[in-house]
Sequence to fold (293 residues):
Amino acid sequence: MNPLDSTTENGNILAFVDGSIYTDSVCDHAAWAAKRLEARVRILHVQTSGTNAAAVKDLSGSIGLGAKSALLEKLAQVDEAQGRLDQQRGRVILEHAKEQVVAAGIAAVETMHRRGSLSETISEMETDAQLLVLGKRGEDADFDKLHLGSNLERAVRSAHKPVLVTSRAFKKGERFVIAYDGGSSTRKAVDYLVSNPLLRGMACHLLKVGANNAENQRRLEEATLKLRDGGYDVTPQLIAGDADEVIAAYVAENEMSILVMGAYGHTRIRNMIIGSTTSNMLRSCPIPVLMFR
Fold:
């Protein structure tokens, strides 16, 4: 039997690799998630389209017909050569990634090399996925701790499934914290954790940032009861202060392994609040972030 058939009903873990130093971490996190969710892994390398065609168009009106034909021919040859190099590079990246996932004990693995944008690929491929796994920073941002991968925000915004943004290296988790605001995205996160085994067995901290009032206490208690009914050992916390600062400090002080939170908002007001917190947490937290929209 094809090893992919045995886990078809459980969907895919979509792991996006780009050859950066986050590639190994993405593979390790994808394998970990696949074991816990009993899912297969589909590894994708997305080659973004180049800009050579636009450059040719810009030159076309300023050169003679004969020169133009010769230039276009030479540029076409360069494009073809570059395309072959991109294909070879993509194969090497995907072969390495597959070897690592298989070595981690996942037999159901397939690879795909796509050309286009990351966000478009996610929209096309996520239908039968349980979880998307991406590196926090891309190939061009390995050594800049304050710079997120240029495609990451667009990728997260385009995804409808949970997105796990990995840390630089994989580490087996023992405890996680949900940055809970009572909104639709964090309620979705709680529902997911109750119905899926991804983080089951890990200690759960439920953090609500806000004033100590009856409404915030009610929201915190509702989520706590739902998680406890789902089998989690929950530590609820209600802490006043700035959300970015409180969450980051809580993650560090309590040695959290994974941060669970809502991602970029849909409305303009919510986007200003949630969007800012999302980006700040991705920049400041050295642990994986599991996001829901």
User: Anything to note?
Assistant: Residues 65-103 form the longest helix (39 residues). The mean pLDDT is 83. The radius of gyration is 22 Å. The longest strand covers residues 40-47.
